[in-house]
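User: I'm putting together notes for a lab meeting next week and I want to include a structural view of one of the chains we've been expressing. I don't have a solved structure, so I'd like a prediction I can at least talk through. The sequence is below, exactly as it appears in our construct file.
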Amino acid sequence: MIKTSITKTKEQLIIENEELHSRLVEAEETLLAIRSGEVDAIVVSGTKGEQVYSLSSAETPYRTFIEEMNEGAITLSKEGIIIYCNQRFAELVHERIERVIGSYFNRFIVPNDKSKFDKLFSQQTHNKNNILIISLINSLYLKLSFQLLPTYLQGDYCILVATDISKMMKEEIKLLKLHRLLEQKLDVIQRLRMQLIDKKIDSEIQIKKLNITNNKLVKEITKHKLAEAELKKKLKQKKATT
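Assistant: Thanks for the context. Below is the predicted structure for the 242-residue chain, given as structure tokens.
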């Protein structure tokens, strides 16, 4: 009985040794991956369940880039709620960042553009990056670039990059107004030209009529002169015979 108990103890030690060796290899592989920068975060199991810890060396450059970029960056839930935005987007909508996060994105859009935003947002797919230009209630114009997060990140989240194109759009609006004004002036010029052409035609017709009348008058005068001359001749002959 004693021999059997000793045998089991050796087997347990062998199993525990293999388990410890396996855990050691796994730990060494994990440390190597962290040192080489292949890991951005680690998952730790504890009394509160699994928790994700980001590695500052991996996260900081990306977060700094997002926070310092000149475009607005927004993460939307599938319901259209802002679950993250950078400081630049808060500046674009003229609100504090804590008031922006947790609100619906389309509350910042003018009523006429809400329907086209909602339609495009509902049609997002992983293999397509859509672009949309909208106007905000504060009179700014934004170009939005839509991109769904990869499915392996667990969540139906959409990333928006918002670029302020207000200056460009205002210049375009000015050019459109100028174009319409030029078209109106061109239309007026064309109408005046047609009126001048009509007047010219009328004048030419009147001149032709006057020429015809003058020709008729010249013929009548010539006829009367001939008749007068003939009459004078006859009178002269009659006086000679008397």
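A couple of points you could mention at the meeting. The helical segments are 2-35, 56-68, 87-92, 97-100, 111-122, 166-241. Residues 1-6 have pLDDT under 50 and may be disordered.

User: Perfect, that's what I needed.
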